[in-house]
Design goal:
This protein has about 575 residues and is mostly helical. The protein contains 28 helices and no strands. α1 packs parallel to α3. About 35% of the residues are buried. About 10% of the residues have low confidence. InterPro entries: AP5Z1_ARM, ARM-type_fold, TPR_AP5Z1_C. This is AP-5 complex subunit zeta-1. It comes from Phaseolus vulgaris (Kidney bean).
Length: about 575
Amino acid sequence: MSEKDTGWDFHLRKLSVSGRDSNTANDPASDPSLLPSVKKLHELCKTEKSEDLVARVYPSINKIFQRAAASLSQSRTSNGLLLLAILQFYLDFGEFVLHDADPSLRTFFRSCLSREFADPVVAEATLEFLINNKKKLLASFPNLLPQFFPLLLKLIAWNGERLEKLFLKAFPGLMSPGTFLPLFPSLVDLPILVVALEKVEKTSGPLIGSSIASIQKNTAPKMLLALMDEAYTGSTIEDGGGDSEYEDNSAIDVADPLFLELLKDENDGIAERPWSSPVIAAILQASVNSPYSDKLKAVLGMTPRLLDVYFSIALHTVNNSLICALIPLLMSRFATIFPDKIFSYEVRKRLLEFMLSTFQCSPNFIALLKKPIMDRLGEAYDSPDKTELALQLCWAIGEHGGGGGSHKDEARELFESLELLLYENLSSSRVGMTQEVSLGSDKDTYRRSSQSRLLCFVVTAIAKLATHHRELIPRARVSLGKVARSRISDARVWRRACDFLGLMKDPAICSSILGPSRPTQGTAQKVGSINWSEGSTKMIAHIPFYILGEQEGPPFHDFSFSDIIPRR
């Protein structure tokens, strides 16, 4: 018998003996020599390419998997690496022994990884397994990773930047038509997930080897009570310090649905996460009142990069109907982000870039989404974040003509929302009268500056929207005329309204400057219209603004019109 055959028999006997050993029969992973034997037999099967050898090995390996899966709830040792090795055998040779790996894969995620995602060794091995088998998993089990994306997000949230590169390689497999929308709020809320996991660990002990689901059932009320007590009184239940208004357990649900939603393992669709709820408020307050942990710091830096990948995949592979459905969700979350200045800036920056890129690719989305857009315009003064969102929406409405020339009714409704926003400022003097400018505090000065900036965008959007839809020009003249005649303290707003009124007296120039920067789908570029994307290469593009500025004296450019206008 050859040395290879001897090694083969040795490892095969090892698997058989393990099932008869009373010490390891109910907990196969407790035998440290079992994993090398499984890997060696797998390697020999691949090398020999013999179906007979695979058929001899399969019964023993399958029994070990079944015993290991049955003992997960009582096992004190890690089963992750052993089960991953057996799953690899199933994927490579399942067709030879007619073994469907789908139930085994789901058992691993649902029963093993849910207990061991916090183990860095198991987490890394799991990601490597998903990357190495990405094509096979997507082809044969396309719904597997999308179903368990919340569990994989817990894995990366807890293990941090050390596994980021591996996770980014596996991340595209998490996206599917059924997970595209639920995945977005889960990514944005990764910092909240980390805080929630840390509270679970603090209240119930180490996460490794424990099922979050069982922890939730047994300790959710106590955990929520401790979280609130720490957030609002600075003490914990254990030390007995402070007087918490939540000391009565009857005030807390047995299993708070929002807390369960944060820590779930499987995708069950989009769930509303009201930020006014006690759980979210307590989590945010506790995180703000205490120093950030290393895990939280890592996730705050990692989440924007995950959103980059998510949005990149969305723009290149996701259909328009799903992207259109994402925009309202994006707008609703713009002002509800984990309250860290750098993190919120980076996330909002990406949300705006994606939203504006989407409108650039599909201007008709503005018409389709007029209701949520109008709602956001109505909230423009609720907070600085909502003001910024409304400002960017005003720009998009004007730039893309309210969805294009074929959406005249929607453009009229959007125009009316812009009018309302403008008239509210004029009637209530939100920007402030001239005599009040010197009396305000720094906060009032910032508020007036922010609102003046918004008004500049509103005035511009009104002028551009009327240029796209000429039936709106009379109403635009009335609106801008009211601004020009009003006592607005900010000269920029007044000046811009006067400039646009002057432009509208000459429709040709107005259309050239304020008209669409590119032809609407199905139409040709109008004669005389300027393509502003080429403005950096055409110096003549700057001349209209020199004229509008009503500058006195010699022109600031050093060329003559004969230099740039060809002679016939």
